[in-house]
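Why does residue order matter? Because the sequence determines the fold. Keep that principle in mind as you read this record.
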Amino acid sequence: MSRPDSTHVDPRGLRVVAGITSVVLAIVLVTPDPLNVIVLAVQVAVFGIAGAVAWSVALPMAAGQLAGGVVGARLAIRGGARLIRIAVLVVSAALTVKLVLDLV
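Structure:
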């Protein structure tokens, strides 16, 4: 099986991918927690076997999201709403600067 290049998303088109993702999200939202993990694991397996996952990008992103969730939750508990507001403003400002610099 050939691996898709970095510009390849899915041979069936973005609408199919969006539809599959929407169905999986709906299932995850209405099912109990243990079943959520199974549904998401099956989705990862299906897309992974099909070669539709860029693992070199997905794994670092997953690790970063996990670390960010843990650190963010701990900071939110310790610092409260004021700290979260400041963090959102700082991150938003940094993202705005980055996007403006990308346009130049």
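The CA atoms of residues 98 and 104 lie 10 Å apart.
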